[in-house]
Design a protein that fits this description.
The chain has 129 residues and is mainly beta. The protein is built from one helix and nine strands. The protein has a five-stranded mixed β-sheet, with no helix packed on it. The radius of gyration is 22 Å and the shape is elongated. The protein starts with 6 loop residues before the first helix and ends with a strand.
Length: 129
Amino acid sequence: CCEDASCGTACSGVDTACFTLEAYDDLLPIPSFKSSLSGPEIGGSFILVSIANFPQLASASDATVDFAGTSGGIRLESSSAAVTTLVLVSPEYTLLGTDAAATVDVTITPLVLPGRAVSFQYQYEAVVS
């Protein structure tokens, strides 16, 4: 009845209140980048990222990183209940063609809790020879 404001009529004699509730999950992972989010199309760039509220990892194999459908490298620097620090290694990007740059989606997924994945964008830049 809140949609058409008929609560008073539909529920006579009962006090009603209509409201909207927006919830925020303060436990969602929050990435913080300590390096550039761009690098050459040949790959091999290191991306240092700290992620608050990310599931604790025992080893680098407890997570995956995907650069536009291609697996990248992961090195686990540290991991605790509060923050996880990773070094990501960008793979080669072969779809640049004649463009000067391309932006791709990157996703870091913890295998134990895939719903806590972190996504960001990374820019590949053409290597001029």
